[in-house]
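We emphasize that the prediction below concerns an isolated chain of 895 residues; any contacts that depend on oligomerization or on bound cofactors are therefore not represented. The input was used exactly as deposited, without trimming of termini.
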Amino acid sequence: MTIAVGTQLGPFEILSPLGAGGMGEVYRARDSRLGREVAIKVLPAAFSQDADRLRRFEQEARAAGMLNHPNILTIFEIGTHEGSPYIVSELLAGEELRAQLNGGALPVRRAVDYAQQTACGLQAAHEKGITHRDLKPENLFITTDGRVKILDFGLAKLKRQPVHAGVDSEAPTALPPQTDPGTVMGTVGYMAPEQVNGQDADHRADIFALGVVLYEMLAGRRAFDGASSVAVMSAILRDEPEELQEINDKIPPQLERIVRRCLEKRPGQRFQSAGDLGFALEALSTPSGSRLEAAAAGLPTVAEPAGKAGGLRGLNRERLAWVVAGVLLVGLLASLPFTIAHFRQAPAEVRTTRFSVLPPEKSTLGAVTISPDGRRLAFIARDAAGKDLLWVRPLDALTAQPLAGTDNAMLPFWSPDSRFLGFFAGRKLKKVEVTGGSPSTLYNASRGGGGAWNRDDVIIFAPNNASGLLRVSASGGEAQPVTTLDSSRQEIFHRFPQFLPDGRHFLYFARSAQLENSAICVGVLDQPQARRIISADTNVAYAPPGYLLFLREGTLMAQAFDAASLALTGAPFRVAEHVGRGQSNNAYFSVSDTGVLVYQSGGTAKTQLVWCDRNGKQLGSPGPPGDYFYPALSPDEKRVAIGRDDAQTSTTDIWLLDLQRGIPSRFTFDPARNISPVWSPDGSRIVFASNRDGPMNLYQKLSSGAGSEEALLKSSDGKWPSDWSLDGRFILYEQLSLSTQWDLWVFPLFGERQPFPFLQTKFSEQSGVFAPDARWIAYQSDESGSYQVYVQSFPPSGDKWQISSEGGSRPRFRRDGKELFYLAANGKLMAVEVKTNASSFEFGVPKPLFEAHTTGYYAVTGDGQRFLLNPPIAESTGAPITVVLNWAAEVKRRD
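Result of the prediction step, given as a token string:
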């Protein structure tokens, strides 16, 4: 069906057609809710006539919508218009891989790069149990910056069309009519043998298809060809493609072997995972792509004997004679003293060198930074008990050493002389000398967001996640603002400053409520103006002699930058793939003044929900791994609402996990940070915090997922819900004021609904929860200098008790009110017996239950017998730090 320009599909307005094919028509549209452009694929109405087919399509499309990966097209939602299903996805700029292949074979390095990116996307899908089934050049889109996007996940099962020889394929589609004879079968040419035979196909069919695509990129022709569909399928089942080196002798034999292994007829003989294939491709092109460069130049590669390389084939006897004569002549001249001054050795070529630095044993890496002189590496490592420490390792040493007194350190940054490290810990900005000594406190910072230190001993830093930047002396003292939030751009915080070479100008990340409006800005000390220079969703780094390094969908990019004129020039180019990032928009890379680049692959450690009993014995995992936090059990304990991070887009959504089936479903869809879910007492609604309109505000939605979110409470201060009283009358929430302190407020759900403070002090009070009778509130406060758990009466009457003595956080009441749980500072889960009546609160001695290896969040069942924890996944603890010496030496050699 054709849709007219201006037609509304829910909140989407059709702007223009983009194309059409056998699977429907594609349109450019505008999302009126978020002010962004999207792509809408409208499928033929015939698909909606088959209920089973439509059900499977919706199932696959929703599954594909769970895939948040830079190499997979992002699906926002699905719907139906006049009986025709449609899919709403991100709008891409670039071209299909088929358009590039129409010009013949691709350069070897580019083909390997595309294949490696595709393998990464497939691996992410396969880990979710999703197989594409229709991988081909038409379903691989190359963006303008060289990013591969896999298209049409979820459509393969929709394309059930009978093909010749009685095969009922799940994938075949026809190419346009102008396709040459013998290639009209399109998808058939990319089917795995088991698909041709009508057998069940798993993820290894995608690996076969990727091998076919890689072959075509390298050879400039199809791997399996024929004059009819039967001939093509026969070739897939029986024939072997022509050897690649016979077509192009610049293709290294290692790459030929990788392609052959993908194209094995039996699935068990192929790569058994897309991750293994991606690793093989990555190993082929490292270090610095030297094997591919050597092969392209006809020189022997590391794994290939020189006699089999192409570099000596053209050396005939005449050329060899001239080479020998030249060597003899040089030897003769070198023996003559009066001529030696005329021969100067050519300067050695400066090349890039890479090596890895492993984290301390049984630890997970966090933020990483290299000293300005390029001699020392500093990083945060979290041990098995969940404690973060700051470590330093000289690059010429074999081991790293922890810095004493840096417990729970965050976001370290260097002094310009490389002698000190600034960092955040215990709600303070601190510094410590890297050779040892005790840290000193410089200023309060409730939730640090990065810092920078110039040659005049001025430190600029982000004190929390709801303000501009402050400046303070490196010796401490009063702090003064240096940036202010731009309300016209809906800025919600400034983070990650970095001084430019003059020590006055500095870069910083300005986060907007709408992520696409976030940017890197340049500020000036003692001047109010700021200048936006590049859109970004993480921090950037300035690298001499004149580059900006920044992250784009997991790829570290560089672009020429003039620090004097503050102007970017030229096009950005790739520096490193798969660079990680944290939950706070901080990318895990750093660069020195001397050309040393360091980065960490992956992202923050994924977590796994785990049930434990009161002794700490694990009782099973209810769902798949993910970047989870804030688990909240439904009142009937059949579901859990949980925050889930997408590190690639720096957004967070609430997901609902069915605890019996282990199936997660997305609950919020706004591209913002949606966190801290709290259930209503009857389980019908969920209230949560979202920064979609600027600061964190309170929203609610039916727990069934029906309907849209309703704004419950909005103001200029950030706020997070923490509990809902069992009588349904009050919501307790935390509020962060511009004075950088947390307070506890109450929002009544009756009368005029005017919020009022429960605790509003110069200290920070958080994680408040009602007792079941709503007469008491337990919370954590740092009034003693460290977080402890307290209980006060509600409404406040002056009665107050300190429950913990050695640190405490995240209190939770048992449903009958006879027990209170909390996390101790040493990581143990504590239990306290409680006795209450209308006027008194009594409690016993806190007793440890077990070591809670969690990320700081947990939930407890109503009877207090089981605990839902959220520990990091052990397998993710060994990711190394990559160190790149002379990173800019590759700039001249890039494609």
